[in-house]
Amino acid sequence: MPVSHAQGLSSKQATLYQQNPKDTNTQVSGKLNNSKETKANDTATLFANSKVNQYIIDNHLQHSPVVKDPRMDTLPKLEYKNGTYMGVVIHEVGEDNRPLQVWVDRMYETYTRAFVHAFVDNNEIHLTAPAEYYVWGAGPKANPYFYQIELVRMYNFEDFAKSVNNQAWLAAYMLKQNGITPTLADDNAGKGSVISHNAVGKYWGGTDHVDPIEYYGRWGYDMHQMFDLIKYYYDNMA
């Protein structure tokens, strides 16, 4: 995953390197949206089931730049139960009116209570913890098994679509890295490789959070649509 590195990062702002001109968003994403290998039935499913996913496909949205935070190596290094993650937890932050950088800085200030692998919004995919170690974001029962991605809240349809596009792309990328087939745990008693924080609480226990269900619902979105988008990217990812 080509990344930029946040440098000179204060408690208020990160400075992003510009991407190498050779590493265009289209190249980084494996030319997912423009690929001749895109399956027509996959696109038709997205069109039929989701106004958000249809907007993403119609507008050929690419994922945003990937930024690796230099502070991630200061976090606890906790070994996964099975040596690596077995799936991805889909989160959202649960509060309005806080931009991504505030959430990232806050996480590093309070990591002894909770921290996650990444935050995404409409403009950025910000990696905050090494994928090689588990994090504290979904309760003690699920934490040692999952890569975890937080979604920052948006306030118009276009920005929401861009943000969930980033969340879905990163989830698909991380599953692809480990050769993990996407399956939706929310519909299978918590068994699967894509699971909401809500389903973790319902089926795994150890947490009472219900994200991202309510926030997704504001935009007519749900975990089935998120899963469709993850699977679309996964299936078309080199």
Give short descriptive properties of this protein.
238 residues, alpha/beta, Lysozyme-like, 7-stranded mixed sheet, 34% helix, globular
Oligomer classification: single chain
Please tell me how large the radius of gyration is.
17 Å
Shape: globular
**Number of structural domains:** 1
CATH superfamily: Peptidoglycan recognition protein-like
Task: Note down, in words, how this protein is organized.
InterPro entries: Amidase/PGRP_sf, Amidase_domain. Residues 7-33 have a biased composition (Polar residues). By secondary structure, this protein is of the alpha/beta class. The chain has a single domain, classed as Peptidoglycan recognition protein-like (Lysozyme-like, 3-Layer(aba) Sandwich), CATH 3.40.80. The chain contains eight helices and seven strands. It has a seven-stranded mixed β-sheet, sandwiched between helices. Strand 4 (118-120) and strand 5 form a beta hairpin. Helix 2 packs across helix 3 (51-58). The longest helix is centred in the C-terminal third of the chain and has 21 residues, at 157-177. The chain is globular and about 45 Å long. The N and C termini lie close together (12 Å).
